[in-house]
Structure formats: C-alpha cells, structure tokens
Amino acid sequence: LEEIMPKPVQDTGNILKQGYLEKRSREHSFFGSEWQKRWCVLNRSTFYYYANEKSKQPKGTFSIEHYSARLAFHLRKDSRKRCCFELICPGKRTYEFTAPSPAEAEDWVDQIQFLLKDLSSLTIPYDEEDDDEEPYNDVDSSDSVNTASYNTALTQDEPSMEMEEDDIYEVLPGKQPNKR
C-alpha cells in the first residue's frame, strides 16, 4: 500500500469535485457522533478533507480504490437525512457525509462511482475525444512509441490541414497561403 502524501488543496492534481460537506467524526461524544463541516476534494483516486478551503494540510486523506459509494438516508433523523451518503470498504473505515442538498449528495455518489468504475477497469483511462484518432507521427524512427504520445498531445486540438508538397509554412484557419 502506498502512502498518500498530504497536499494543500491547490496541489491535489486533477480535481473532479470539491465543496463543503459535513463529515461524521469517528469519536462519539456523550450526545452521539458529531458532524463537522469540511472542505472535501476528490481527484482521480484520492479523497481529501480539509478544515476549510484555504487549509494547507488535509485533516485526512484516503484512496477511494475498493470503496463503494451510496446514498445513506439512515445516517440522520433530521431534515437533512436525504443529503447523506457514505463510502464503504470491507475491512476499512466507513466515511459518512452530509451534502448541502439531496442533489449534491447524488452528484458526489455519481462522481465517486464513475471514478471507481474507471479504477477497476483494466485499461488506463484517457480522454474519450481521442478514441478514433490515430496519433499523428511525422518521425520515422524506432522510438515512434515515445514520439506518438508526444505528437498526440501537440496536435490534439488542431484541425487537419492539407499542405502543398514543398510548402513548409502552416496554413492558419481563415487565411490563404501566399502564392508565389
């Protein structure tokens, strides 16, 4: 198991969802467990929770791999019960949250389930836009595997252009090449 390094909110990588949630504390007081407002951040594989959105150190982090997310109306008895969800993993701590609204709780659950599906698939995730595009490669060499991914990143959003044989200048959209 790899150790997750604590990171400030700004450095958590690809943030897929973030916002304030109430998290149920592990410690139970005389009145039962307490709900604490936390700034929560979800990236591709890790759930972070902070005291607030300006915090430098997270109060906690955990890998969401092998967890499952579901709405959990039984967590509260008050008017916010339809805003509750939990993250469960056999043999690990269960995390319980209350979102600001039922729709927001559903969105957190949907985002986490989407990520979990991605993490459990055997393929490496990539942008769906690139599905049917062959990587452009103008280098004819044995290390074309390395250059293919490099060129794909460079040409990803460029429209395809047809060049005249000896023309070394790029044709910009909306401009005609100068004829000599």
Automatic annotation (TrEMBL):
Query: Which InterPro entries has this protein been placed in?
Result: PH-like_dom_sf, PH_domain, SKAP_fam
PH domain residues are: 14-117
Composition bias (Polar residues) maps to 142-158
Report if keyword Membrane is assigned. Answer: yes
SUPFAM superfamilies tied to this protein: PH domain-like (SSF50729)
> Acidic residues compositional bias: what residue ranges?
126-141, 159-169
- Using the record for this protein, list the coiled-coil segments as residue ranges, or answer none: none
Q: Which UniProt keywords apply?
A: Cell membrane, Cytoplasm, Membrane, Nucleus, Phosphoprotein
Q: Where primarily located?
A: membrane
- Phosphoprotein listed as a keyword: yes
Q: What is this protein called?
A: SKAP1 protein
Q: Name one GO cellular component term.
A: cytoplasm
